[in-house]
Amino acid sequence: MFGSELHVVTAGDPASDESLLFLHGWPQDWSSMRQLMTFARPDRYVAALDLPGIGGSLPAASSSAKSAVARRVIELIDTLRLRNVTLVGHDVGGMIAFACLSAGPARLRAAVIMSVVIPGLKPWEEVLRNPHIWHFGFHSVPTLPELLVAGKERAYFDFFFNNIAAHPERIDEAARERYVAAYDRPSALKAGFDWYRSFAEDARDNAAVADAVETPVLYLRGTREPGEISSYAEGLRTAGVKRLQTALIEDSGHFTPEEQPARVWREIERFLQESAPNRLLK
Fold it and tell me: Is residue 282 part of a domain?
């Protein structure tokens, strides 16, 4: 626990000069990153948290805007005394990782963003117009999603795992039960939907970022998830990301950390070796 609020799971050497902090997405918790954590070298320090309001992290952040959550993440980095941090964010966690590039660039060695569109960045408007992304609008409606989903979390979450994963079987029964448990109180369910309700604010925040982003960034996307990775890369470069790499994860849909953890880790390790070896902070 962090300040009796943030639930954090760690492994490796706390005195390490290199650390990784994993940020999960919706509708998941820290454990969606557990397989990636096992690939890290034992001389690195790795940590994963339940995002504010989810699972063991109580209460939710005062604001669901990704800039506000990013400030909490930077505070956590300082409290845990993490050094040379690589943020690894999937889905909503990727949006938060992007916000951290502005909130605390001096703390970051690198960032990995997976399987997500960043609000306000190309192809954001295209994604909003896509009728297959109907849940962005639904989740943004005040109170209604909670009313309809409460008590039916398993069936509702399963719809997404079964339909936007290329390998839904790799999000196994135990994982699905963990995710339901992480959202099974009203405040947690609301915290998850509130991430969507803040999208308009997130887009304004991201559009207001004027400084170039010097932190190396890797953007990953599954080959079986719709959307051209080049469009996402263009959005990041237009937003000022100067040192960007991209890679496709073969035979993966949306849930890349669980569908293809070994392939995801291979890309992360390659990226760290090639792009960030000279960014170790003293």
Answer: no
Distance CA 140, CA 134 (A): 10
Number of domains in the chain: 1
Any domain includes 3: no
Domain hosting 72: range is 8-275
Residue 44 vs residues 7, 27, 38, 147: alpha-carbon distances, Å: 20, 28, 11, 43
- Between CA 59 and CA 78 the distance in angstroms is 20
166: CB partners within 8 A, 6+ apart: 222, 224, 225, 251, 252, 253, 259
Checking if the pLDDT of 3 tops 50, the result is: no
**CATH number where 182 lies:** 3.40.50.1820
Strand-pair partners of 220: 114, 247
Task: Give a yes or no: residue 204 inside a domain.
Answer: yes
Token pair of 266, please?
């291979």
Domain assignment present for residue 123? The answer is yes
Give the orientation angle of helix 66-80 with respect to helix 92-103, to 10 degrees.
Answer: 70
Q: pLDDT of 248-277, one tens digit each?
A: 999 999 999 999 999 999 999 999 999 755
Give the angle subtended at the CA of 5 by the CAs of 89 and 108, to the nearest 5°. 35
Model confidence, pTM: 0.95
